User: What shape does this take?
Amino acid sequence: MKTIIPIHEVKTKTTPNDSFFESYEARFKALADRKRLQIMYELTQRGKTCVCDLCDIVDMAQSKLSYHLKILLDANLITREVIGTWSYYEINNSEVNGLLSEELCCIFRPTRS
Amino acid sequence: MKTIIPIHEVKTKTTPNDSFFESYEARFKALADRKRLQIMYELTQRGKTCVCDLCDIVDMAQSKLSYHLKILLDANLITREVIGTWSYYEINNSEVNGLLSEELCCIFRPTRS
DNA sequence: TTATTAAATCAAAAATATTTGATCAATGAA
DNA sequence: TTCATTGATCAAATATTTTTGATTTAATAA
Assistant: This one.
């Protein structure tokens, strides 16, 4: 699986090359799904949340939720913390704020900290 | 006693429904392609540009470019002006600024006007 | 008129992404 | 130990997107 370069390191000094656009493509692809946007929304509202709770909240089969969480995680839009058998996911504030407008604040991105 | 939610708070106090997420899905889908991001970048840099010029600039076959422009147009991220047989495309400033962060200014979104 | 150019659209093929159900690995409890 | 629970991963089936080359439409020039 491809590693996503953190958003603040990706900024261009010269004409962007293909890997520059590729890097943003990965982030926007992760956002380009209504189910993943709903996950982003719930994590924005609730803060750090356990997968088992999220399963009920977004009404999704476990393997399907896991698939979508992985896409958001690989895009660096959320982070994961494992405690015992539980996994907790949380919005990656700096990444999301660096990508989305202030108008989207409280919907998909948290308030600026 | 029922509490009336002030209109400017309705957006965040009400749980978004599927069509809300669907609407953002469409925008992010349009951005979720490196070729379309390159088109956005070039339009941001150059301003209103003719399809025939864009074809050379992004080095893309005409029908392919037309396909990608339609996706951006349908997502309301760019606008079109037809003059004779030429089509000129331009960034839709307000839409893009309402969606993307200020950090992306000058890359995919124009400076705030 | 005919020829040329710009650009949208179409249909088929190819490439990607998503869903589904099953399985697996790890943790903790009985 | 055995059992139950959490959640990641796998492979196959579906579904969706993208690419390609051909065709079409419209405008203009010869």
